[in-house]
Amino acid sequence: MELYGRIRLRHLTCFVAVAHERHVGRAAERLHLSQPAVTKTINELELLAGMKLLDRGRHGAVPTAAGERFLDHAERVVQAFDTAVAGLAGAGESEHTTVRIGALPSAASVLLPEVLGELRAQHPELDVRLRTATNTELLAALRAGDVDVMIGRMSDPDTMAGLSFELLYAEALAFVVRPGHPLVGTRATFPAMCEYPLVVGVAGTVPRHHTDVLLRRHGLELPPGTVETLDVAVAAAYTRESDAVWVAPERVPGRDIADGRLARLPVDTVGTAETIGVIRSAAAASAIVDDVAALLRRAGHGTVGT
């Protein structure tokens, strides 16, 4: 019980920063403190805890087993404090607040039109800065503090260190064409689809990886005339006006399919499902980010506006 009166918020803040950065120097830069000050604070925390919480060496700092257990609780405390402070600051400020949202282009086209409308209804004075990019670029921006919250895919454990992922939905690939396309109404095969130009994601993205794997499974490669793009609007327009076959996450062309402007081919894409979720950093915790995450959660489950 004595620990409750001796462990301070500064101990938790330093510990969380070092655990996230895996490096005392980078944590010090993030906290705008000197490296000796951070080291001293961590030493104090470990002395109070009576156990080693971080393995520190020339190559960085990694939480011990006890540190990993402690980290989950420490993150919650730091995030709750940051959220409370942000709420107080927001209540007393009259100037515009800005939230920076990062999103995969495919997820942005599915979720954000409705979410932005609901967000404006809740916060009429809120400025929104939207950034679309690849998952790797967005994760780097989130870790650097250049975006406050993102819609993306889970990455490897090292990249996700210090970040939280909340599942919104999972989706497989869809092969989509214009109504009246020669393949509509047929049992479209992969060789038959590759007789037409394909529209696919750019190299290095998960949908593109699944596309390549799917084609190789059938002994095929991307055909000549393939268009690689992250731009959903361009891909949709090109597909509507040509004989191209668009390979996209299945929710992306959903509105066009429902409106009869595109048609989905009955192609087996088992094994291409990928999760989409809200990714956040405790360092960017705020009441506004909580509201954005809640709206994305509702949109992911199809309940925005209901």
Description of the molecule:
With 306 residues, the chain is α/β, with parallel strands linked by helices. It has 3 domains: 2-90, Winged helix-like DNA-binding domain superfamily/Winged helix DNA-binding domain (Arc Repressor Mutant, subunit A); 96-170 and 275-300, Periplasmic binding protein-like II (D-Maltodextrin-Binding Protein, domain 2); 173-272, D-Maltodextrin-Binding Protein, domain 2 (3-Layer(aba) Sandwich). 45% of the residues lie in helices and 19% in strands. The protein has 12 helices and 12 strands. It has helices at residues 9-21, 24-31, 35-49, 65-91, 105-122, 135-144, 157-160, 190-193, 206-217, 232-240, 254-258, 287-300; strands at residues 54-57, 60-63, 98-103, 127-132, 149-152, 163-171, 173-177, 198-200, 227-228, 245-249, 263-264, 274-281. The strands form 3 sheets. The protein has a 5-stranded mixed beta sheet, with helices on both faces. Strand 8, helix 9 and strand 9 form a beta-alpha-beta unit. Helix 1 (9-21) packs across helix 2, helix 1 packs across helix 4 (65-91) and helix 2 (24-31) crosses helix 3 (35-49). The longest helix is centred in the first third of the chain and has 27 residues, at 65-91. The model has no long low-confidence stretch (mean pLDDT 89).
